[in-house]
Design a protein that fits this description.
This protein is an alpha/beta fold. The protein folds into two domains: 249 residues, Alkaline Phosphatase, subunit A; 102 residues, Gyrase A, domain 2, CATH 3.30.1360. The protein is built from 16 helices and 20 strands. Strand 7, helix 8 and strand 8 form a beta-alpha-beta unit. The mean pLDDT is 97. Pfam families: Phosphodiest. It comes from Actinophytocola algeriensis. This is Type I phosphodiesterase/nucleotide pyrophosphatase.
């Protein structure tokens, strides 16, 4: 499915707080809790594990954008822009002929995070647009970012979520307390909270596994607790950055010489792969990848992906970050890299593609007036 940029996408949520969109009703104070990996279809499939979430008003579902992965979604959420406009177009992102960057760690891809790229590729240059948090502060709104301490000053935070006051938290207790405390401050307030563990359970054990379901139960109690403590004229919205599927049908681009022919570099992730091709090789690489992947992926040229709106309106500054060939996985397939991405390639749960299971996330809202 093509993301609904500008209508019902993750990028349209926070601009609603500024009155630029209409997904959220006005409130003196708004908190948005992003639960990593909370997909609409997964949530609907397990209502017994999340009865409070199931009882909340759902202004969604929303599409998250392409690729449907954390770094890209956080940039869309934080800037209010689609991926083609903010420029984070893959979990691994090709920035030059020589550099592919891991956007989650802001480090050189494939070096286990040892080569920090924050100086050579400043986040504010890689993603130059102002964030919604910066625009909110300029409008006199208090902004608080509540997340794990390790994310303060990280490359991805600086690129996608810069602005506001950062509050580091360690567990559900101080996450809930920090959100409620920030909402209770006088005047207009915007609070962003982040929870990562549901996504981790899905990656390691599989979406819908017992471990994933028990973590969902904890998230449900967290949300219920925050709602019970909401100050007057405040609201809590809950969403996700992507859904997830179980991947069990793989093609290995690190060991298959056919997939390597004519390809200078690979970026993206297993469910959304960019093949950056040698000059003059685009047509041959496209034909080869279509022949190998077949019905396991939507495999198209860069031009077709852009024309069909996969990335939303594309800034010409970011065109080279898209592969000459783009493969969006279907079903349970993926293009792994067993050598360059050994850990990622072994994970059961994956996301990144255009399927509804990965694209759709809820927008759940509760408020006190």
């Amino acid at each position: 499915m093509t993301p609904e940029y500008g209508v019902r996408s993750l990028a349209d949520v926070l601009p609603s707080v500024l009155g630029e969109q209409t997904l959220l009703d006005p409130a003196r104070a708004t908190a948005l809790l992003l639960v990593d990996g909370l997909g609409s279809e997964l949530l609907r499939a397990h209502p017994g594990d999340a009865p409070f979430l199931a009882s909340m008003a759902d202004a969604g579902p929303l599409t998250v954008g392409f690729p449907s992965s954390t770094a890209i979604s956080l940039a869309s959420l934080g800037t209010g822009l689609p991926p083609g406009a903010h420029g984070l177009l893959g979990t691994s992102l090709r920035l030059s002929d020589d550099i592919v960057m891991d956007t989650l760690r802001w480090a050189e891809h494939g070096t286990h995070g040892k080569v920090d790229l924050r100086k050579s590729f400043p986040p504010e240059v890689v993603q130059p647009a102002d964030t919604v948090f910066q625009r909110a502060e300029a409008a006199g709104i208090g902004v608080t970012v509540v997340s794990q301490p390790k994310f303060e000053g990280s490359g991805l935070t600086r690129a996608a979520l810069r602005g506001g006051t950062f509050t580091g938290t360690h567990a559900f207790g101080d996450l809930a307390a920090a959100i409620v405390t920030a909402l209770a401050r006088p005047g207009r307030q915007l609070v962003y909270g982040y929870h990562a563990d549901l996504d981790a359970m899905g990656h390691v054990y599989g979406p819908g596994s017992l471990q994933w379901r028990l973590q969902l139960r904890q998230v449900d109690r967290l949300v219920e607790t925050v709602v019970s403590l909401l100050p007057p004229d405040a609201q809590l919205a809950v969403t996700g950055d992507h859904g997830m599927v179980t991947m069990d049908h793989t093609f290995d681009a690190d060991t298959d010489p056919v997939l390597q022919a004519g390809v200078r570099a690979l970026s993206g992730e297993p469910r959304a792969r960019h093949a950056h091709v040698a000059p003059g090789a685009a047509a041959d690489v496209l034909a080869t990848w279509q022949g190998v992947l077949g019905d396991a992926a939507w495999t198209v040229s860069r031009e077709q992906a852009v024309d069909e709106g996969w990335f939303g309106p594309l800034s010409p500054h970011f065109a080279d970050r898209i592969g000459g060939v783009v493969a969006a996985a279907r079903g349970t397939a993926g293009v792994i890299r067993s050598e360059a991405e050994a850990f990622l390639s072994r994970l059961i749960g994956q996301h990144g593609s255009l399927t509804s299971a990965e694209q759709l996330v809820p927008l759940l809202v509760a408020r006190r007036d």
